[in-house]
Design goal:
Shape: globular
Strand content: under 5%
Helix content: 55-70%
Radius of gyration: 33 Å
Length: 993
């Protein structure tokens, strides 16, 4: 997310931005003219001019004239046909999206050209060294912590302009001819597939450049580069793993998405190996690499000689050891008198049938089956007892075997055309031999994953494919060390180093999949088990009894869940999920997140179900489960749970078994997740921010009491109402003194990440190092500030809840005035809009809650109650404290700045227009009028900073406030319902639902 709070108020090169907007607008104009003709262009330009005129007149204070033009605009829009209306909407949508792209790159150019605003690794490390941070401590921190940085995109050269304009025209034409609307709801697998594509197009490209710059900056300031296999960044996802209120995410979906992620990683590595093999044509190498290359050649030679030898028997006995010399055979082998198309098994000869390179199961045809124990195709005169024909239709099992082997037919022959013959092998470079062997294993690994995804048997020898990153890193590191030892460091630090860094970062899974489930579902599963075992009903026990039971079972060595227990479908799905987690293990999965967690028993319940599943799966496999146990992460979301988070963690760590488990299996590290979306919906943006701040402090203190390290994972959404905002400011605003990873994971299919490309996407790879030490340096706080914050939070929360939860007219007004019901019918995600099909706000998810208010431009979740709380603090004489807090406390400053930005973006006249059209009852219209008055009072903050605190006490008349809100200039993206908006302060900040 671009950094666009205080540091982007001045020095923007509007000329370059306007040039880009004019260029993209002109190209879109040409495409529309070609696609729809001059009549539509005339209509489009007229609507655009009328809309701009309304905004200009209101901005100039010509309210009456603006209203008249607006009525004319409404009349012309109403008179249009449905087809023209759709085309107009699409045209403006594309225009605004293109403008948003121009704006993002304008920010990239600005950040690159202005040194004093740079947040590059070199600048950050220099500031830390100058600030007294020892180089050794800086080096250790970089190698162990999560670092993020903005990734620049170089400007385009002039000579490529015409060619690139043609490319832009093609892109815009393709966009216009593409149907943006999904006609069917996406499945979780569809969402995961789209997310993996985004990773391929953005993060995959950004990571090597980012790590290379980190290494160069680290070497400059500490004398040591970043270790090649150091992994300061890891990526995770819960696309296909987040089953919290989403019945479409099943155990099979989680398994398939995890395998698909592995397949994508392997496929990307294979492509990189091709490029790398082409580059490494040098023959100079170390003795160790030469020895490995010779061993590979000998094995391949032995394999080819074995296949070519007429004495070689087919079947499992065809492993032949190479010897210096072989004596002539004393007699011919058995079956030598038979035709060459037959082979011997025991005393019988059977005809080998060559299988065609297609899948008979998919082609829908019948073919003779291959030789098998249950249905051989036999030679004439040698029939088995009970066999009456030469061949028969293959069974399902035989078809699966044929599909398994079909990849070897055709592929091996084709590869021989591309590969040099054995006589030419001595001229092959050793690096290409080693990398070719790596590629061959990777291709087998990819094929194995394909078979697993199709639920087909795969009989690969584990020695023939890669399972862990260490196995893949071994030959790559060998090549790197060889190049370094031979004086070819320039080659070593190129594509090879990039590939090694990618392997270290993405591993064999690209992104580890996090599993998320609501705590109540685990309680239901244990209810079924305890009831079946006549132990009572688990959910009816008090916390102490639950902890005693769970701890006792966790210490035991037997499974708890009977293998043949019959339970309800929902409970079985929970048990199946844990079984899949046991089969995949921590090599493929990341964390198991418990949403709506509130007690220590919520964590132990998951630990018990996980242990039980691993014991069962291990018994079925006859070997230990792959990887380790998943780390269990409680997610505290509501204000009540946030206030009790520290106590829950203390109760959890006080249990000897759990504390020892964390130390032994998770390196003494406890991860805790805090939720921004539901807490904001529960108590309002300001109170949620303050409760989250205190909860983090309490959780850190609890872990420190037991000597356990803690990582706080912030479940921040894209919009301000869901905890969004610049990552740099968010991390700086955290309580000091803890290790924190701001994952900024977006719910669903990565809708925020999807808006970024390979250059701009790395903007979220920023800020850990830049904010960790500054936040610690600003750790001292005036104790009186906390008292002021408590007062603001109390008044703000009370006003928010009295409006949203206690006013009986509010729910009906919300349902009428916003498109919340229609949002549930849009095919934008696989997850339902509500956790449970009940009326009210409680079960409504945060995304439709925020999105609905964003559509009406009231953006209520981000500001409701804040003005009341600040006004109350001013009335009590806390003006000086508020000014000091704003100047010296990053948390308070960033919170006010983000709310200020949202208030400036809100459009009261547009919200009123929604009310006029959709709300019929005068009583409910009065609710909208009061909300707009509250927005107007909060709007006094938009002057910025201390002036906002001075002006907030002045209460304007409602009509005057509405006029002031209408005068706020709106940017292109704001008209599209999200993105950047220009406030009166000149700041720009994205706001996506």
């Amino acid at each position: 997310m671009p950094e666009t709070t205080d540091d982007i108020a001045e020095g923007i090169s509007f000329q370059a931005f306007e040039d880009d907007c004019r260029l993209l607008g002109s190209l879109l104009h040409d495409v529309l003219l070609l696609e729809l003709g001059p009549h539509f262009i005339h209509l489009f330009e007229r609507i655009r001019i009328l809309a701009q005129s309304v905004a200009t007149m209101r901005g100039a204070g010509m309210e009456d004239t603006g209203a008249a033009v607006e009525r004319q605009l409404e009349a012309e829009l109403a008179a249009m046909s449905l087809e023209d209306s759709l085309s107009i909407a699409r045209a403006f949508s594309h225009y605004l999206n293109l403008t948003g792209i121009a704006e993002r790159y304008h920010r990239v150019r600005k950040s690159r050209s202005e040194v004093h605003l740079s947040k590059s690794c070199d600048d950050i490390f220099d500031k830390l060294i100058q600030g007294g941070v020892p180089p050794e401590e800086l080096y250790d921190t970089v190698c162990k912590q999560h670092l993020l940085e903005f990734n620049e995109r170089p400007d385009l050269s002039h000579e490529d302009r015409e060619m690139l304009i043609e490319d832009l025209v093609r892109e815009i034409t393709a966009l216009w001819q593409t149907d943006e609307l999904r006609r069917h709801k996406p499945t979780p697998v569809d969402e995961a597939r789209a997310g993996l594509h985004i990773v391929e197009q953005s993060l995959w490209k950004a990571i090597p450049r980012y790590l290379r710059r980190v290494s160069n900056a680290l070497k400059k300031h500490t004398g040591k580069p970043l270790p090649l296999t150091c992994t300061p960044i890891k990526f995770g996802s819960w696309m296909g793993g987040d089953r919290d209120g989403n019945p479409n995410v099943t155990a099979k979906v989680t398994r398939d998405v995890s395998l698909m992620s592995r397949w994508m990683a392997i496929d990307l590595y294979i492509r990189q190996l091709d490029n790398l093999s082409f580059e490494l044509s040098t023959k100079k190498c170390s003795e160790k690499l030469a020895s490995v290359a010779n061993e590979i050649l000998l094995k391949e030679s032995a394999s080819e000689e074995t296949k070519a030898s007429p004495w070689t028997q087919t079947g499992p006995q065809n492993i032949v050891k190479l010897q210096p010399s072989l004596a002539l055979a004393a007699q011919l082998p058995s079956g030598a008198d038979l035709p060459s198309l037959t082979e011997c098994i025991g005393s019988e000869a059977q005809i080998r049938i060559v299988k065609p390179p297609w899948n008979p199961k998919r082609q829908g045809i019948q073919i003779p089956t291959e030789k098998s124990d249950d249905s051989p195709v036999q030679s004439p005169g040698r029939t088995r007892p009970g066999s009456s024909h030469m061949g028969r239709t293959p069974s399902a099992g035989q078809l699966r075997k044929m599909l398994f082997t079909e990849s070897k037919i055709g592929r091996s022959s084709f590869r021989k055309l591309l590969e040099p013959s054995l006589s030419d092998r001595p001229g092959i470079t050793p690096y290409r031999i080693v990398l070719g062997n790596v590629k061959e294993k990777m291709m087998k690994t990819r094929r194995r994953l394909e078979l697993l995804l199709e639920d087909l048997p795969c009989d690969y020898d584990p020695a023939e494919y890669y399972e862990t990153p260490d196995q893949l890193l071994e030959p790559l590191t060998l090549c790197y060390e060889s190049l370094q030892s031979c004086g070819s460091s320039i080659l070593a630090d190129g594509r090879l180093a990039d590939l090694i860094r990618r392997v270290a970062t993405f591993g064999m899974v690209l992104m580890k999949l996090d599993v998320r489930q609501e705590s109540g579902r685990h309680a239901e599963a244990l209810d079924a088990v305890t009831s079946y075992l006549d132990l009572g009903i688990y959910s009816e026990w008090d916390e102490e009894k639950k902890l005693d039971f769970l701890t006792r079972e966790l210490k035991g060595k037997r499974p708890l869940v009977p293998p043949y227990i019959e339970v309800a479908a929902d409970v079985q799905e929970v048990l199946d999920t844990f079984r899949v987690a046991a089969e995949l293990g921590s090599d493929s999965l990341g964390a198991y997140v418990i949403s709506m967690a509130s007690n220590a028993s919520d964590v132990l319940a998951v630990e018990l179900l996980q242990k039980d599943a691993r014991l069962t799966v291990s018994g079925d496999l006859g070997r230990p489960c792959p990887g380790g146990t998943l780390r269990v992460v409680p997610l505290f979301e509501t204000v009540k749970d946030l206030r009790e988070a520290g106590s829950a963690i203390r109760n959890l760590l006080a249990i000897d078994w759990y504390r020892e488990h964390v130390i032994k299996n998770h390196n003494g590290h406890q991860e805790v997740m805090v939720g921004y979306s539901d807490s904001g919906k529960d108590a309002g943006r300001f109170t949620a921010a303050w409760e989250l701040y205190k909860a983090q402090e309490d959780v850190v203190a609890a872990c420190n009491e037991f000597g356990i390290k803690v990582t706080l994972f912030h479940g921040r959404g894209g919009s301000i109402g869901r905890g969004g905002g610049p990552t740099y400011l968010a991390i700086q605003s955290q309580p000091p003194g803890h290790s924190s990873v701001d994952g900024a994971r977006r719910d669903g299919a990565g809708q925020v990440r999807a808006a970024q490309d390979g250059g701009a996407a790395a903007g979220d790879l920023h800020d850990g190092c830049a904010s960790r030490y500054p936040a610690a340096a600003a750790s001292s706080r005036d104790p009186h500030w906390r008292h002021v914050m408590e007062e603001i939070s109390r008044v703000s929360c009370a006003h928010y809840r009295s409006t949203v939860y206690e006013d009986p007219s509010f729910i009906t007004y919300f349902q009428e005035a916003t498109p919340q019901a229609e949002l549930g019918y849009l095919n934008i995600g696989s997850r339902p809009a509500k956790r449970k099909a009940t009326p009210g706000i409680n079960n409504l998810r945060a995304i439709p809650w925020v999105f609905a208010w964003t559509q009406t431009r009231l953006v209520l979740p981000a500001w409701l109650g804040v003005g009341k709380g600040l006004q109350d603090a001013l009335d009590k004489g806390h003006t000086e404290e508020l000014r000091a807090m704003y100047d010296e406390w990053p948390f308070f400053q960033s919170t006010l700045d983000l709310i200020e930005m949202v208030v400036a973006k809100a459009d009261a006249p547009m919200a009123k227009h929604y009310d006029d059209v959709l709300v019929s009852s005068p009583e409910r219209r009065a609710v909208g009028e009061e909300l707009r008055r509250e927005l107007a009072r909060s709007g006094e903050m938009r002057a910025g900073g201390q002036r906002a605190l001075q002006a907030i006490g002045e209460q304007p008349e409602p009509e005057e406030a509405d006029r002031e809100q209408a005068a706020v200039p709106q940017s292109h993206e704001h008209a599209a319902g999200g993105g950047a908006a220009t406030a009166a302060t000149g700041r720009r900040q994205p706001e996506a639902p």
